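Example: RidA family protein.
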Amino acid sequence: MNPTVISTTQAPAAIGPYVQAMRVGGLVFTSGQIPLTPEGAMVEGGMAEQTRQVLENLKAVAAACDTTLASTVKATVFIKDMNRFAEFNSVFEEMFEGHKPARSTVEVARLPKDALVEIELILAVED
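Written out as structure tokens, the predicted fold is:
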């Protein structure tokens, strides 16, 4: 199986030597998304606003594969301050509309562009 690069202008372009996502067979592996607008501007605001933008970006990447966040099988979350976990979790639950993927969440010392949150997904898609 050859990997296929997934790219959309509805999410920010990669800010380094990587792609937005790779598809291998029936799985899509996204790169971590931080709260950048599709134009590349950092979103102002706190954890809720940043989490919402990250998940909007990931929705756009999923849409580029003709799927939705509901096809997520695994989410990996990097969060700047675990004291903000409840606020993050509230937006995560809202954006996933009742879908509950497997998930890991870790607190990290620093994220690119001093973001408060970064999320990467593994999605199952039609092969």
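The mean pLDDT is 96.
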